[in-house]
Amino acid sequence: MIQREGIPLQKKIELTSWTVLGIFLILGSVFASASFTLGILTGGLISTLNFHALCRGLQKVFRQLEIGKFGNSPVMLGYLLRLFITGLVLYLVLVKTPADIFGLVIGLSTVVISIVFTVIMTLIDKGYLEEV
To answer: Which of 36, 47, 65, 113 could form a disulfide with 100 if both were Cys (CB 3.0 to 4.6 A apart)?
Structure first.
């Protein structure tokens, strides 16, 4: 089992996302078609890389606030640019590749599943769920 103590929450979520994506890819390649597995792969890559970029942007903003720099931060511009690029990539994947849309949706859900799983594991590690 992975030692989770001392790892920042963002890193835990990212590690879990890659693990969940790997599990989905293995299951998809064994039990589903190649187009379904391609959908899982592209959706998982899009969501995990998008989450990583969002975390980096927020870390940059908080570092600027920490040193007292309250100027105009291009966070919103970066968010909108990332949203546009994500939409464009999703459009291109759906139009230009044989990726299955249901596999794509499963792949896009990897970060959400990872967040839920990581929160549950963190609560178990801290002993909060023993009472339930």
So the answer is: 36
Closest CA to 101 of 90, 111, 112, 110: 90
What is the DSSP code (8-state) at residue 2?
-
pTM surpassing 0.70?
Answer: yes
Which of the 8 DSSP states describes residue 15? H
For 99-131, the pLDDT digits (tens) are 889 999 999 999 999 999 998 888 888 777 666
Going 64 to 66 to 67 to 69, the CA torsion angle's sign is positive
What are the structure tokens assigned to 34, written together? 């190649």
Residue 82, CB-side half-sphere exposure with 13 Å CA sphere: 18
The pLDDT value given to residue 78: 78
When computed from its CA atoms, the radius of gyration of the chain, rounded to whole angstroms, is: 18
d(CA 27, CA 5): 29
Residue 56: φ, ψ to 5° = -60, -45
